[in-house]
Design brief:
Elements lengths: L2 E3 H8 L3 H9 L6 E2 L8 E4 H19 L8 E12 L3 E8 L2 E8 H7 L6 E7 L2 E6 L1
Antiparallel strand pairs: 1-3, 2-3, 4-5, 4-7, 5-6, 7-8
């Protein structure tokens, strides 16, 4: 079985180690002491971390995302760049540690009023990145 330190788990979940420790202290993520001893590092079993990550993502989507869509890979974040050409445009979103880039029409960007600093959600389906204005 694979085990992760609290710090490794925090990086995978996109949160600070302090947040991951608080979740562990609150019993939201089960931890085990390395070697079974009290002074050992707290470790998280891979299956427990995977289940928590899925639950956390679902709760975040339920709370922050009233949009109904068939696209399941959602990355809420902030627009960091908008480059507009004659016909096409490029929009970059920073979502946690993920930088997503979407190529779309200039008309779509203008209709949605997308600009740097605006909250947005990138939705990835297959090889396409869709942008939802939040």
């Amino acid at each position: 079985m694979q085990y992760y330190t609290v710090g490794q788990a925090a990086r995978m979940l996109g949160v600070s180690p302090d947040t991951a420790r608080r979740w562990a202290d609150a019993g939201k993520i089960p931890t085990y002491r390395e070697g079974g001893q009290s002074p050992g590092r707290r470790m998280i079993e891979g299956r427990d971390l995977a289940a928590f990550a899925v639950d956390l993502a679902q709760k975040a989507q339920d709370e922050d995302d009233p949009v109904q869509t068939s696209v399941r890979n959602s990355f809420p974040g902030i627009i960091t760049a908008v480059k507009i050409g004659d016909v096409s445009a490029q929009v970059e979103i920073q979502a946690g540690t993920h930088r997503l880039v979407s190529l779309l029409t200039r008309e779509s960007v203008e209709e949605m009023g997308l600009e740097v600093g605006m909250r947005a959600t990138a939705r990835v389906k297959s090889t396409s990145v869709h942008i939802d204005r939040v």
